Amino acid sequence: MITLKEIERQLTTDFSPEKLTIDDDSHLHSGHFEGDGGVSHITVNILSEKFLEKSRVHVHRLIYRSLDPFIKRGLHAIKIVVMQ
């Protein structure tokens, strides 16, 4: 079962963000995707110096690469908001 704490720990380790919030949106998708009862849909709001001078596509790729172990375990959807 995936938890928000695990996801937060991974993103913090990889990006040392100045700001990070992760919202569990799984309840909004009831019936659309049934995982193992853990987190399946999230919104990531993140601000990190590691994203400076990077395109939005590149940042999204970095975040998806970071979260790949969770995707393989059942994380189904990730909305990414890169804060300014």
Overview of the structural elements:
This protein has about 80 residues and is α+β, with helices and mostly antiparallel strands. It has a single domain (about 5-80), classed as GMP Synthetase, Chain A, domain 3, CATH 3.30.300. It is built from two helices and three strands. Strands 1-2-3 form a three-stranded mixed beta sheet, with helices on one face. Helix 2 links the parallel strand 2 (about 40-45) and strand 3 (about 75-80). The radius of gyration is 13 Å and the shape is globular. The relative contact order is 0.26. The model has no long low-confidence stretch (mean pLDDT about 90).
Question: Could you name the key traits of this structure?
Answer:
84 residues; alpha+beta; GMP Synthetase, Chain A, domain 3; three-stranded mixed beta sheet; 2 helices; 36% helix; globular
What's the gist of this structure?
By secondary structure, the chain is α+β, with helices and mostly antiparallel strands. The chain is 36% helix and 23% strand. A three-stranded mixed beta sheet has the order 1-2-3, with helices on one face.
